[in-house]
Amino acid sequence: MPDIRIIFFIFGSLSIAVQTLLIRTFISTYSGNEFVMGFCLSSWLIGVALGGFLMGRLSDRIEKKVFAFKFSILLVGLSSIISVLFAISSKKVFGLLPYEIAPVSQIILASFFITLPPSLIFGFAFALSVSYLRTRDAIRFVYFLESVGSFLGGGILSAGIIPFLSHISGGLLVLGISIFALSLFTERLLWRGLLSFLSIILISPIFFDKEIGKFSQRIKLGINPSDYRSSPFGEFVSFEKEETNYILLNSLPLITYPERKSIEMNLFLPLILSDRNSEVLFVGGSTSGEGRLLPENARASFIIYPRDVLEMEGKFFRTERKLKVISEDPVTFLRKERKEYGVIAVLHSDPSSAQENRVFTDEFFKLLRKRLKRNGFLVVFAGEPSNYMGEEQADYLACLMKTLRNSFSHVQLLPSTRFAFIASEGPVDVNFLIERINIFNAMYAREEYLSWDASEERRDYYISEIERALPRVKLNSIERPSLYFYYMRFLGGKEGIKFQTFLKRMEGIKLWHLIIFFLFIAGISLKKEILTIPSLSLFGAFIVGFSGLLSEITLAILYQSSYGYLYFTVGLFLSGFMGGLTLGAAGKGKGQRGFITSLILLFSFSLLCWWLFSQSHILHISIFYGTIIFFVLNFLYGFLTGRIFRESASLIKNPTGRSAGIMDGVDHIGGAISAFFSSLLFIPVFGCSEPFILIALLSGCGILSAFISNLLH
To answer: What pLDDT score was predicted for residue 228?
Structure first.
């Protein structure tokens, strides 16, 4: 059998690779909603904690530990490919269409079933590893080597290979690596050769990634891509059916182009607001939708991003007419643009993710106001009118109205296929707009179509409901994505009163409630021991899990809100965090003195991050330097939490597989709590700066508990 350190390294490498693979698959499946990262990591950590708790005592009784290691490696690979396949098809399991936005409760349920199988195995493997060594520094040693594997092996896989593969190809790669690792621990030459050959067969499909990508989409849609007009490469598959385009991308959420009457309103309403002497800028839209209906004499530009979408449309929509298209991130483009426009129209879909939310923020609207001429107009499309407006929908639209009013003096509402918010510095006559739309001879814009949808009676009803909700809603911003929260709460309202009540209670939680919870945990840690483990060690493990995951997810959402590239960089940030964890866990602990010093460092660093982000010092720099800074911040948080875990483990005098399982379990339970609530509460309700205050408060409670514990014992 090879050196035992190789086994720990392999488990660490596969752990971060599988996490990255599942998170990317989940983000892609669930319409680019990067908040699912919190649910995925929370479910993952719960699984690891269960594996550690349930198998901690059992691991000390297992005699054939080498066989258990082999079996665990095999199960990691098999469970990973099964989880990927389930993640791809999970929407179908819940009865949702591929392009349908999933409510939060279904996302949480899916994340649990997707991540549970492999995470249980990793939790068991940690307890088994410590039980195998049976030394005083076993917990720290295994933790360190798994962190090294996560940073080196996992970093190569998650940041350098998996982002360029389709999801099934990535799953086959993990399975192939696990089979190859298993062959290293096989003594018989024949079996080693057979397993090595099998691993090569499993890994080789990555060279046929295009075909596997199409197979992946067939699973997702339940139809044969060859029956439709489709692209010839990778998971970039486009379907055109009944005058509606569905574009599915490996790296992006599903993009749908709405039916004709919606496209006409998107196009013609901004055009009639224009004075014909100035240009109209469309943020979003499509060349095959709005671009196809654009009048010949219209002066208009489109920001269609990313470039992949434009290239996809070019394969199926060809025109001799030259459309002015800007293929650049809209926030980046408008920050450097100096041209002024008569009208700017935001045509993006409702914000079911932080990336989509960024074009509905107060910062973005203020940026657009600078790019408008003196008497210009901003038109923002959102929501879908219905005969009855419930509280959840009213809150969602009121949040958008409140954010627009923070930048513009007048905001008018025109309901059609979607709600059109018209923002300007002067009043707008909506009835006059409805009459003017007919000059384009549009099918949907004819008076008989708008006479009811945009009637004065319905407008007054919608506006009254929105005005009633305004006092109770928050402003939407990059730092506090409130509009995303209200939209997901609106979707959750379709699932019944129980989930509505749950989300309302989430919104009612205040910062002082969490402070009381932290103090309660700190009070428990004043006991000398719990389950024969020093209570301070368990509190330190909880701080590591809670702070590490909260910082990771908060930095990820902040990065996505600022740059919109998280899908490509999530593996880089995860590996960066694990690299810091590796360095922090290295060396021997210094006991209680080192424990307090590490917490003081975490406290100070968290306050520094809070100041940097609350003052927006980082969010407006270029993506290149921004990526470097976010990587460094992840690395430093990994270093500090790894150091705290090292010091916490050094307080245990006689570590066993059971104590390792409990310590690892408490670490992961703390991380699961913060990961889960970061996506539901900490970021959408508190904002992206407040989580750093929470980390500082928790570490402060740890410092206080350590000093009091020292006096008592």
So the answer is: 39
